[in-house]
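To: structure subgroup
Subject: Chain for Friday's discussion

All,

I'm putting the inputs and outputs inline so they're searchable in the archive.
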Amino acid sequence: MGRLLHIQEGMNTTGNAIECETQEIVQKVCEVLAVTKVDEVRKAALNVLWYLPARTANEINYIRQLAEGTTDQDVRNGCAYSLGFANPRTQGAMDARLTVKQSSVEAVRKAAEEALKRIGREQ
């Protein structure tokens, strides 16, 4: 969790290496979620998803794909939360955030719409 927060807040922490590291962390979190029913463990794992960095087009698209690729509603909601607080740093990332409104996951669409309203870019 601490590493993801560090990545998310870092101004110059983007790129392939960071994206790979984030994806490895998410893969492990999803493995934990798949095998545990213990509420405290699930909550801790889901906290990681809530704070995924969503600053680049690749990060935003990865979170969207993660949400669309699962039937676990908790994972979908975690991804939606993360996307709802996306902090795009490039025009490509802003455009990616707009496309999230077309997600097949309702929670993700709603989070994207709320985020866009919040920044005044509703289209």
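Points worth raising on Friday:
Helices lie at 2-9, 16-35, 39-50, 57-68, 73-84, 91-99, 106-119.
The chain has one domain: 2-119.

D.
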